[in-house]
Specification:
Radius of gyration: 25 Å
Structural class: alpha/beta
Number of strands: 9
Helix content: 40-55%
Distance between the termini: 74 Å
Strand content: 15-25%
């Protein structure tokens, strides 16, 4: 038995179905496209650029926000800072600072040591920033001795405040006074939560990244420090690539230190 439908009635049915489809697509499309508020934020700082170290090219090819910490007085400092900036990454100056244990020559040229005059400290910091003109901030390379020295850190953080730069304390010593001095000066500072690549085992680095994600969810944000060169390099790059999708699924967003302003108020 055939049901005969007039043209006008058929047109009305088609129109109603079409409208319903549009409404459904809008409803479900909105649900799919709406960006949920992140459950936490991760800042990845990658140290030791400026040496053309292992993993440099691969790290700068990542499609993930990383903060590129460049040592200022090395052979490839300007070149790698420029490449990082051109790739859209945030650049900071990786300031070589005297450790409690170790040799001064480990710092490379123009490192910050506790026996320097304040004028020389400021001269070296400003010269380094002139070389790395894209720098949005600074962090310390080694520095377990200097970050306990009120005289030196005050001079460095005064420059940071003057130039509207932030300072990421790598926390190479639990006795660091960086945050206390920055707070008194009104300078912006942050502290490292986790070192990613204490060894070059990819599974270990992946675990550190997942741990960083847990901290970010609990605290709101977390800062992890990795490396190019002998401490990390291509192994760290692979670990980041492997874990990044999992962290995204957990609702974590990767950002730069300059975007942590929401946590400084």
């Amino acid at each position: 038995m055939w049901i005969i439908i007039g043209k006008n009635k058929l047109l009305r049915i088609v129109t109603i179905v079409f409208i319903l489809l549009i409404i459904l697509s809008l409803i479900f499309g909105k649900v799919i496209k709406t960006d949920a508020k992140p459950k936490g934020y991760i800042v990845l700082v990658i140290d030791d650029f400026g040496n053309n170290g292992d993993g440099t090219k691969e790290m700068l090819s990542l499609d993930i926000p990383i903060t590129v910490a460049v040592m200022p007085f090395m052979s490839y400092s300007q070149e790698e800072a420029k490449k990082a900036h051109k790739a859209g990454f945030e650049v900071i100056m990786h300031v070589p600072m005297e450790p409690v244990h170790g040799k001064k020559e480990w710092l490379g040229p123009k490192g910050i040591t506790c026996d320097l005059s304040l004028d020389e400290v400021k001269s070296r910091i400003n010269e380094g920033l002139d070389i790395l003109k894209y720098a949005k901030g600074m962090n310390n390379h080694m520095g377990s001795k200097v970050t306990q020295d009120k005289r030196i850190m005050k001079a460095i953080l005064e420059i940071a405040k003057e130039k509207n730069l932030y300072f990421v304390d790598s926390k190479t010593t639990p006795k660091s006074i960086v945050h206390n001095i920055a707070d008194k000066l009104g300078a912006i500072s942050f502290e490292r939560d986790i070192f990613l690549d204490n060894n070059k085992d990819i599974k270990s680095i992946e675990k550190q990244l997942l741990k960083l994600g847990n901290i970010a969810i609990k605290k709101g944000y977390a800062i992890g420090i990795g490396h190019v060169g002998p401490e990390g390099g291509t192994v760290t790059v692979k670990a980041i690539k492997n874990v990044y999708p999992t962290l995204q699924e957990q609702g974590i967003k990767f950002i730069y230190p300059s975007q942590l302003e929401m946590f400084t108020k």
